[in-house]
Amino acid sequence: MTDLSSSPPAPRPRGDTLPGNPMMWLLIAAELLVFGAALLGYAGARALDPAGFAAAQDGLDRLAGTINTAVLLTSGLFAALATEARRRGERGWTRILLTVAALIGSIFLVVKAHEYAAEIAAGNGLDTSTFHTLYFLITGFHAVHVVFGIVILGIVMIFDDLEHVETGTAFWHMVDLVWVVVFPTLYLLR
């Protein structure tokens, strides 16, 4: 049985292993490959129709994308702070920081829902153009990862030993990293 006392866990030498469970790192690597393949597909499709992609891209809400970037990076900061708090044995503070990270992450979903609603109201959907198909698929797949990440953060709030917190926050940071690549690729790059 895992000891969940408030005493700090034994320090692990830095740099000798990845934080968290190794299976999460395999999942993260697989997810990065999937997102990488999707973005390569996007780049290939864009190369075939640069004018069409540029015109469709101009209709995106860059402010919403920028807000969502700030939201995820801020949430990631709180997740990192939670990990450090757990390393110090501060369980209560860890749970508070994980809650804040999850709540801030939820803002991403609200902004994305408003953005999708505006796109749909403008007559843009999965079948409008190749750009819109890829936009909705890539950002939708990412939004699903945000939902899973929030669920994972909730789970590690309950089962909050250091390995669990490190594992959950590693997944959350993958979600941040992917958005930091998706946002400029879909919204900004010409």
What this model shows, in words?
The protein is 78% helix and 0% strand. It is mainly α. It has one domain (27-188): Four Helix Bundle (Hemerythrin (Met), subunit A) (Up-down Bundle). Helix 1 packs across helix 2, helix 3 (62-87) packs antiparallel against helix 4 (91-121) and helix 5 (130-158) packs antiparallel against helix 6 (162-188). The longest helix is centred in the middle third of the chain and has 31 residues, at 91-121. It starts with 21 loop residues before the first helix and ends with a helix. 31% of the residues are buried.
Short description:
This protein is 78% helix and 0% strand.
CATH superfamily: Cytochrome c oxidase, subunit III, four-helix bundle
What is the count of distinct domains? 1
- As an assembly, this protein is single chain
Q: Which sheet architecture does the biggest sheet show?
A: none
The total beta strand count reads 0
Q: What is the third-level CATH name, the topology?
A: Four Helix Bundle (Hemerythrin (Met), subunit A)
**Topology pattern, helix = H, strand = E:** HHHHHH
Uncertain segments are none
Number of helices: 6
Mean pLDDT: 92
